[in-house]
Amino acid sequence: MAAHGPAALPAAADRGGPRPGDPRARPGPPGPAPAPGLATPAPALRPSAGLHHALPPLPPGGSIPGRGISVLPRPASGLVLRLRPLGESDLLVDLFSKEVGRLTALAKGGKRSKQRFFGVLLAGHLLQMSLAPSKSGDLWRLETAAVLEPHLGLRQDFRRLLAAGPVLELLLRATAPQDPQPGALELALITLGRMQRAKEAAEMASALVIFLVRLLKLLGYGLNLEACLACGRPAAEIEEPRLSLAGGLACPACPEAQGARPVLPGLIKSLAAALALEPGSLARLRLAPALLPEALAFLAAFWQEITGHDLPSLSLAIKTLS
User: Fold this and answer.
1) Are 162 and 318 spatial neighbours (Cβ–Cβ below 8 Å)?
2) pLDDT score of 242 more than 80
3) How many CA atoms lie within 13 A of 48 on its CB side?
4) Which domains does the chain have, with CATH numbers?
5) Burial class of residue 149, CB neighbours in 10 A (0-12, 13-18, 19+)
6) Each residue's pLDDT tens digit, 155-213
7) 308-315 contacts: CB < 8 A, separation 24 or more?
8) Distance CA 256, CA 153 (A)
9) Share of the chain above pLDDT 90, in %
10) For residue 59, what is the DSSP state?
11) Taking a C-beta distance cutoff of 8 angstroms, is the pair 225, 275 a contact?
12) Edge-to-edge strand order for the sheet containing 261-262?
């Protein structure tokens, strides 16, 4: 992301100040030294043109996290991804917020508090929070939190809870810290909302497939489903399509098809539809049950290729929903 310098200041006359040579003009005390340059946060994955690693915007009246200056708490909404104990009473809370992106916050007394955090800090909860960055800039302080959406339906059926696991794990493992991705949060909330109401495994699996393929696109790793990766042959003309870990559709005769997975033509169309729909229409899209095993198997392999490590929650979800 290119850096932009500050805009040039207007002339003194334009600002209403004294003109040069005016006896009222006297040198004032020197201004504060400019802050040193900001370092770009390291990405969570290998570099991609689709990922933008930006620091969070400044809060009103605050300063920049990581500059050794404390700032006032700022409001934020976010999804709880993971909880980790710290000492006897504190918790480290991994969150994905609309305003900041992925972050880790310290909840002082989070394990024992019966006032500020009791019943609030649970994985899958959507929270309204008050956050303040620490002096290091990497760890935030969770001052207050209230539940906006508990997603209680996930805990009423173990299949729903396991199907939701990859949603939280991928936001935790596949996104860069402090890189706002409001589209990814919106997608996660749509998916969790659908899963908590689902009654059949096929419905949960459809929601998971749609999440997996759309998150790829949001993070800059979208599949090419319109034409063969090698020869450019349109998808409509490929009778025996393959899905390649190189990034999408491949003809049977092309080199990219070596080791690629043969899939039904209907799967290519269904995945393309999942990418084309507006977010508000995703809950109405349901893949045919016969397409789900192929879709989940390929997407699990592709996500593992991208992240570079196993995704235990995704493997468990696929096993549960099969």
Assistant:
1) no
2) yes
3) 18
4) 74-150 (2.40.50.140), 154-321 (1.20.1440.120)
5) middle
6) 999 999 999 999 999 999 999 999 999 999 999 999 999 999 999 999 999 999 999 99
7) 308/45, 308/46, 309/173, 311/166, 311/169, 311/170, 311/173, 312/169, 313/162, 313/165, 313/166, 313/168, 313/169, 314/165, 314/166, 314/169, 314/170
8) 42
9) 67
10) P
11) yes
12) 248-250, 242-244, 261-262
Task: Give the distance between the most distant pair of CA atoms in the chain.
Answer: 85
Q: Give 161-207 as a DSSP string.
A: HHHHHHHHHHHHHSS-BT---HHHHHHHHHHHHHHHH--SHHHHHHH
Per-residue tokens: 101: 């992106």
**99 within 8 A of 180, measured Cβ to Cβ:** yes
pTM: 0.77
Residues 6+ apart with CB under 8 A from 77: 97, 98, 99, 126, 127, 128, 129, 148
Q: How far is CA 112 from CA 87, 108, 145, in A?
A: 11, 9, 15
Tokens of 118: 């009791």
